Amino acid sequence: MRKLMSIVLWLTFAATALATGQSKESKRLESAAFAVNEIMHTPEQGIPQNLLKKAVCVGVIPSELRFAFGFGGSYGRGALVCRKGGNGPWGAPSMFTMYGANFGFQIGGKSSDIVFIVMNTDGVRKLVQSGVKLGVDASAAAGPVGRTAEGATDLQLHAEILSYSRSRGLFAGVSLAGARLKTDYGANFQLYRHVYEPKEILIDGLATPPAEAKQLDDALALYSPQGGEPFPKA
Q: What confidence tens digit (pLDDT) does each residue in 42-58 have?
């Protein structure tokens, strides 16, 4: 009932400000694509290619849409994109919010680009549950940096989610343990003009990728055109 009421409220707001909201979501996706390109432009300091090729999904929180609150806590709005079927081309995004962790301050900045990669289908199925807590509901670790993951620890190699932060030109793996992800139903409605659950977008592939997502999909395809693992058949 609470979830239904939340969706109804989002639809009410979206119905009165659809054009403005869609502009904001376009900006969020554009900024996410820019962050991916900036991070991967220097392979020596980016996400290891062999890990990115294995990723089933990639989540991005661009710094322009993040702000800090309180002491040691942060809040951000991002987009999560998965490969169609788990191992196909990059598909439609599901928008989300993340809050409750100090990831914005871990490498000396108050505003950071956050990127996390989901390494297997089990991790995806956990993330589509709104309110999932990283490090508790889904295993998470700071990701290794560089051309390859040769120096990765056992914890990193077995984590379902590997995360990174870029702030003031610095790029490093950071832990998002303790952060919570919630589906941004309002943003999804403004993109698709339809109420979708994140599973329907990311796993079932029911949503057609909107034009606003093309830049992000193209950026991911440039650095990881193939990979992932197929979603198990229901």
A: 767 789 989 999 999 99
